[in-house]
Fold this sequence. Notes:
The chain has helices at residues 3-15, 20-54, 68-72, 93-118, 197-201, 226-236, 243-259, 261-271, 313-318, 325-333, 357-360, 390-398, 415-435, and strands at residues 132-142, 160-169, 183-189, 211-216, 283-284, 289-291, 295-304, 343-352, 373-382. By secondary structure, it is of the alpha+beta class. It has 2 domains: 3-54, no CATH class; 133-407, Catalase core domain (Catalase HpII,  Chain A, domain 1, Beta Barrel), CATH 2.40.180. Strands 1, 2, 3, 4, 5, 6, 7, 8 and 9 form a 9-stranded antiparallel β-sheet that branches.
Amino acid sequence: MNRDTIQQWLRGRRSGAVSFAQAQREDLIVQSFRVFRDFQRFWQMARGSAQSASAPARSSEATPARYEELANALELQDRPMPLTKFERAVPGEATLIANMARIAANLVVKNYCEMKASDRSACAMRDQHAKAHGCVDAEFIVRDDLPAEFSTPLFRPGARYRTIVRLSNGQGQPQSDRKPDGRGMSIKLYDVAGESILRGLEPGRTPAGEHDFLLSSFPVFFCKDVVDYSELMEAVAAPSGTWREKFKRLLKWIVFAVRNPRQFYTFGRTALVRIGNPLTATYHSMSPYLLGEEHVVRYLVSPVPARNDVPSWWNFFFGSRPDNFLQEAMLRDLNPTPPGDDIVFDFAVRVRHSAKPEEVENALLQWTRPQDRTVSIGEIRIPRQNFLTPDRVFDGERMMFSPWNCLQQHRPLGSINRMRLAVYLASLQVRRKLNMVGP
């Protein structure tokens, strides 16, 4: 029945020209069309509901694509100043460093989105050393009898500094302390005279009067230079959502291991350092630093007296310890009731004899010359305290540590450290923007 026929039938009904039998017959036709129309509407509604149910749910959580512009709009720092006489630039260094900074920023976003999917209150965390065992108050005391050749405006004999020490796991996402991982110690000195290098570069993001030291639980870095590190991070940051991506990522790891066996071995060794208590472990800066004008050093922080809290290999892998046993060990040792002695660390430098540029640029190199020496600079004293107060935990998460937050006389050396300047700033920028806490 076309439109003209229907209109003619309606006019006939209104004028009475259609008989009762004809009208009844036509009403059946109209009712049939109505039933067909209603069925069609019902079918469309049912099909739409089925498609909505089978389609992937549109997540209201954060997605990496949503924050892509944060990584693309980073303010990347170039080399802060001319190289020292102990350094040599790596070919293609600037491009590699910029790429590493973007990878670090994207790792912050990726980890943030994964945590946000399961916990709506989650905050963006560091791309490395995300899980803190605790941030504790301490005091840094320089030796009264420090030899003059190691004295600097920071290391003045008898100087004392209010200090914060952050102890952490190495991974970019919080995980059980039972899992193999590197452990870290970050030290921040306050009320330091003079401007740090980082404050000169980023005055809006760096408070005055601070000096940082960053250390880890292995003596050397697991990559020689920024070239090695970029190859490793390409494997670490490779996507693994599908089987094809997992296979490609595995190939990258295999290629890195074949091309860099020593680096791959050291990377594994770093994660397998066994620590039973962060307050009884020894920490190393791994990479070299300037001390004054003529010395190249690595920092070394060790407990006094030395304590053997290293778990056996069996307990390390299969022991029934809680997920946060490292923090629990700190709580036990720093329990303020009853009062007890301070926890003491010796702060020393390992001095490289006649350091050459090729040695400074190799963060993987062990310093074992007979002329290399270790010199004690002072001590770090950690009093007994309650370090899990809400304010301290909050401040610890917002706190920023960088090897470049230091005085000129303690400048970081080598391409790994030059890369860390851009990487740490990129991570900080993205983390603060995601958490909406500042520039």
